[in-house]
Structure prediction request, 499 residues.
Amino acid sequence: MKIEIKGICHNFGGQQVLRNIDYTDEFNSLAVIGPSGAGKSTLLRIIGGLLIPSTGELILDNKKISFSEKALWEYRRNISFVFQSHGLFEHMTACENITLPLIHTFGYNKTDALQSAVKLLSRFGLFEEKNKYPSQLSGGQQQRIAIARAVAASPNLMLLDEPTSALDPELTSEVLDMLGELQNEGLKTIIVTHEMGFALKACEKAIFICDNTIVESGDSAEIFTNPRSEQLKAFLDKVLEWSI
Amino acid sequence: MKRFRNPTLINKILSALAVAVIFAALVWISMKRIGLNLDFSTLFEYKKRLFDGFKMTIIISFASLIFSMVLGMLIAMGQRSRILVICYACRAYIQIIRGTPLLVQIYFFFYIVGTAWGIDNRYIAGVIILSIFEGAYISEIIRGGIESIDKQEYEIARSIGLTDIQTFRLVTFPILMARILPALAGQLASIIKDSSLLSVIAVIELTQTTQEISAANFQMFENYIFLGLLYFILTFAVSMLTKWLEGRYKHENRD
Prediction:
């Protein structure tokens, strides 16, 4: 997938959250890393069509994205989004959470939607959980169901906003395993993450965002082993300080 | 404290009995001290009128509940309006209604506003006045419910491509209902009790009926104790309903 971001800036409440984001690359899986508050999630939400940037252009596979509510609604149908936490509707069971977009956004009939949902849940070992409400599920199960919902309608691109940062390490690997499996099957992903191991091993490309702009980008192997900027060096030193 | 969490059935029954005995004893001792002997038998001859009054109270309460819910919903939405005039009007309405006694509102709306606009039917006027009063409270219940919904629920709805109408129908409304139903049922109990004040404009509901009976048989104590009992039967039923609703929606509401 080819992504072109041209001069995207975003202000929020008089504060600049993103400034002059320029980035062009082809990727299958892209990791967005950087310190907290750098603007990673904001950029992801702009790419996901959930937020309209103050200025700038976004071009995906040579198609310019029009930032009008109506066009974005159409655009969002082909992109799926996984949130940091609480990404499921609290009043619906795991199964209903997956069938809801299939029925109401993609026009499946109930039987087909249910069939797809059950197939996905079984595949990821969540069949037993199908009639549970989010409050009855572990954080890892919730995220896996959110991911299952996100892939149910075969999106062109899946965006994940720190999908594991609210989880403990065991649950984190359960979610990342699932994600790695989907990436291997050819699902295009952009993930904002603090899991450096995942960014390095499972993502082909990486972007480092610091101080509200892209400081470094390229192949993730290159970024992690041979950081050029002082900011990235300092960031990697800090996050890898306690890794084994 | 743990052993109190799951009391045995015997414990429950004995405790309930003990409470009933204590309350009954208190009432009985009070009556003995002033030498009061109650005789409820005279009420029997008014049973048809009492039953009609009882029915009227239920009818007025339910009609008011429905109208006040519609009004409450409109006001709750109006308060969130971007048009300032609407927003201020809704806020002023809530402040004024919640800040004045129902009795004053009944007199004001019936004798001044009602007369000016030609609403002579006391029953219709009663339902309108009660709806206006309860609507202010219900709109606050609804507003609280709407504000308690996590903003992320809307973001999820947007991300999976729901339209605004679908979001309301599939997300906002069911979550809102689950959260406010118990409070709404509680409000119904208030409406039932508040409807007694409509007796001041001679709406022949339960309280007015009792007042009329009192004027004939002069047995004030019996009449009003019985009146209290009838209201309690109604509100107790509503409170059981509330409990049932709370249980029903609990699993969806746990955080």
User: Anything to note?
Assistant: The mean pLDDT of chain A is 89.
